[in-house]
Design a protein that fits this description.
Largest interface: A-B, 43 and 43 residues
Distance between the termini of chain A: 37 Å
CATH architecture of chain A: Orthogonal Bundle
Structural class of chain A: mainly alpha
Order of helices and strands of chain A: HHEHHEEH
Oligomer: homodimer
Strand order of the largest sheet of chain A: 1-3-2
Radius of gyration of chain A: 19 Å
CATH class of chain A: Mainly Alpha
Number of domains of chain A: 1
Helix content of chain A: 55-70%
Largest sheet of chain A: 3 strands, antiparallel
Shape of chain A: flat
Number of helices of chain A: 5
């Protein structure tokens, strides 16, 4: 979210400042482990609520509900209700959600790549 | 953090399970907005505590201290104390920290790219 310097009009500057502030707000919404793990879980296709919950180990019903709603509100996840009895509710990544998933994949790859380094560093730090 | 299936020895499987559990733990540590914004702020070079605090708008002294300590423990940030009066304390990304920064950059780019889409989606959702 670097600060942008420009010599444009006051309107341009106001737009940029607003976009920057909104950008920070969005970053705050999505940069939490539950949101990112939900996005990762939906990376391979549509899932029902209970399937997301199984995929994201350790998440509570409440946190999953809150985060799915936040992701839906931000347009990263589509929620579809099928009129069966009981209703079947499914979640799918939108195109922006898929794009975010690519960066989450990068973070997961990073974790796997450096797990040994991190473990060694923790041992040094704790002793 | 996908589950890995393999036909290796029991020792291999135990190692993988352990790495996976540790990986999840590491992901939980770093996948929070403060940690990621601190890493982003250190992307361009060494900073003092007060400089990180200025760069990461809105972070409290306590959260900054906790997150820098967590990042140091995980070997993502080096902390150097210069023996001046008062001591000068500086923070620098390690090589794994730099690698993580690349994925955080991707997340910031994503935010800027989709800010319009997200804003429109929020308006629809809220109305």
């Amino acid at each position: 979210m670097g600060t942008k310097q420009l010599n444009g009009s006051a309107a341009d500057e106001a737009d940029l400042t607003r976009a920057d502030s909104l950008g920070r707000e969005i970053f705050s919404d999505i940069a939490n482990k539950w949101a990112l793990l939900i996005i990762e879980s939906l990376g391979d296709g549509t899932l029902r609520f209970s399937e997301v919950r199984n995929a994201v180990q350790g998440i509570s019903h409440k946190m999953l509900t809150q985060n799915l709603r936040m992701l839906e509100r931000n347009g990263l996840v589509d929620r579809t209700v099928h009129p069966t009895v009981p209703p079947r509710v499914e979640y799918t990544l939108t195109e922006p959600g898929q794009a975010l998933r690519a960066t989450v994949d990068g973070m997961c790859d990073w974790t796997h790549r450096y797990v040994g380094h991190i473990e060694a560093s923790r041992h040094r730090f704790d002793s």
